[in-house]
Amino acid sequence: MDNLRGHHVVAAIATILVAYLTRAIACFFRHRKLMSKYPGPPYHKLWGHILLLGEYRKTKPIRMHPHYLPALLAEDYNLGPVFLFDTYPAGPAILIVNDPGLAHEVSTVQNYPKSQLLGEALEPVAGPQNLVVMEGALWKKWRAIFNPAFSMTQLMTLVPLVVDSTMVFVDGLDKFASKNDPFRLEEPATHLTIDIIGKVILNHDFKSQTTQNEYVDAMRAQLTWLRDRTSFNPLHIYNPIRPIINLYYTWRMRRYLGKLLDARLTARAGNASNTRQRVGIDLALDTYFAEYSRGKGDDMNLLKMDPEFRQYVIDNFRMLLVAGHDTTSSTVAYALYRLSRHPDILAKLRAEHDKIFGSDPLAAADVLKSNVHLLNKLTYTTAAIQETLRLYTPATSIRQGGPHLFIKDPSTGDMVSTDGLTIWIESVCLHRSRKIWGRDVHDFRPERFLSPEISNIDPRTFRPFEKGPRNCIGQELAMLEIKIALVLVARLFDFKAAYDELHLLGGDGTLWAKNDRGKQGVQDVWGDEAYQVLYATAKPRDGMPMRVKRRV
Ligand code: HEM
């Protein structure tokens, strides 16, 4: 009897399994059939674009940032304004936007929602609700709260603080120069931008350039634990330890920021007029007092912050601290790298600094502090930074398609459905398009942003900070930081990339030294050994090994 019942159970489980498998297989082939109608590189009935991905993995670096791939595909297959890349079920089916007009449509006219994939990827870094992934009224509210912290008027008042942090960076470079050893430029550049964003958002000096800091250690360690979206290794993808580690670092970071918030709250409630500034933490507290003070009498009754509000503030701080350092530090490193490879361009940049700040580079910090508006005169330096951002775009935008959202393919006039698809506004495709920028597209030539030729290029093409309502809140801050770094560094030091000396850095204890993945095989993209890799954002490969020499 028991035996018979056992057979029934097995038969029922088998039936469910067969039904489940049949449905999964039917879904799979329905997906492939549907996707085969989209424009794109050759599509395999069974494999979609998975085999194509395999081909690129043979000829390009394994660690190459995924945002290079659509640009390579567009070039190799002469692809049009919108095309599909589908590695389902290994990855999502992605509709790639490779046209400035369509990018404008998706980012600005229709402002597609942010992709769920982005939410999943950023959750460990800044919780489920933060400025980058929020939508609708919630996003509007928090964007409006923090906007004033990034206004040009506010930023200009912070220039002296940025200069001070950058002088600590200069001291650090000096030490590397006297030791005459290679080092990874990305490391000190990262600590520089962390210190700056701490001041801008929290009115707090992490001093990460000179000391260990609990928050910075936790944040950087957590970034190394994020899932590497280029890895297909199931042991990595489903690592059971990752969620536990994430919880631990999240707890440490929230605790640190919570203490800062409480201290500021107490100071504000006690003596509002003396402590208020337009840094992020005070702007958040302004909103808190405005929203919660009704009927509570004086501010001292608000010292126990509403838990929901508190969570939003802290997670937004976490997001701003991450978004506000990673991309900027990479751009500082890439700008110095590119300048070091083009003595003629570097000479022009230095001549501009001589002209604006006087011929003594050692006096530049004081000159700048006494007249912060001199930064607005840096025309050539700005072009050099723009050219760096064009070639080394640190971030792009991933949106979510939907049943009512269609993209009109300008090459055919077809309305392309975006239902169920991830939409990628692929700025790297736009920034590396030979058709748009000409035959020297992969060359570093700041002049292209200064000559009349730029007026022939659709202004919606160049979008390192994205465009539309979800553009980068920190773009002016980033430009200001990078300009100040170049002004204070470019005339004092000569840099030389040291990729041929990477073996000397194997034991330097950095995040780069600890990870061996992809260090063998092809190591260049478009002939560039300092290609970008995915390490939370787009970072210079191996942290950009450099040697530096003092000039004056
Ligand atoms: C070179 C430096 C930077 C680059 C290239 C850059 C690029 C970008 C891009 C492309 C986006 C759009 C992302 C998306 O659509 O998902 C973005 C958004 C954002 N960036 Fe930046 N960023 C830089 C520096 C900064 C800085 C210094 C901050 C300061 C906190 C910052 C904070 C943010 C935030 C909060 C968003 C989300 C804005 C929103 O959706 O309302 N970024 N950034």
TrEMBL record:
Transmembrane annotation, as ranges: 6-29
The keyword Transmembrane is annotated on this UniProt entry: yes
Keywords for this protein: Heme, Iron, Membrane, Metal-binding, Monooxygenase, Oxidoreductase, Transmembrane, Transmembrane helix
Named cofactor requirement(s): heme
Example of a GO MF term: iron ion binding
Pathway of action: Secondary metabolite biosynthesis
Listed PANTHER family: CYTOCHROME P450 (PTHR24305), P450, PUTATIVE (EUROFUNG)-RELATED (PTHR24305:SF107)
Protein name per its UniProtKB record: Cytochrome P450
Lineage: Eukaryota, Fungi, Dikarya, Ascomycota, Pezizomycotina
